[in-house]
Amino acid sequence: MRKIKIYCKNCYKPFSNVVSEIDEKSLIRIDGEELLPDNSIIKTTDLEISLPENLDIFLSANSELNIEDHSDSNRFQGCCGPGDFSKLNQVCSNCKEEIAVLFADCWLYHFLVFDNTKIIVKDFTDKKHIRRIKL
Q: N or C: which end of the chain has fewer CB atoms below 10 A?
């Protein structure tokens, strides 16, 4: 299991502490619950929903993150929480670059999914050889 850290591609600020990469068997597919265990990450397109192609790197929304809500409240429409996959609603807390979608509506599991064109991923498994990778 790799140890991963995610950075803003625009300003290089880290979004997360080191998190653990998980496999598909670890996903929690229960409506209204977190999709991933805390402090975990996965790249997947094997979900019951259609997301834009570049949205495929999921991180536990309960992780401690250096991101914040977008200032445009229209990006948070949903009946019980943000429920629109088509608009990035999370921004880098440093440079305000749009970087991810937080989905927390009641009709599906909750998740945070990053636009893979706006982030840098580094492997911290071997702290002596930290390297940039693609998930």
A: N
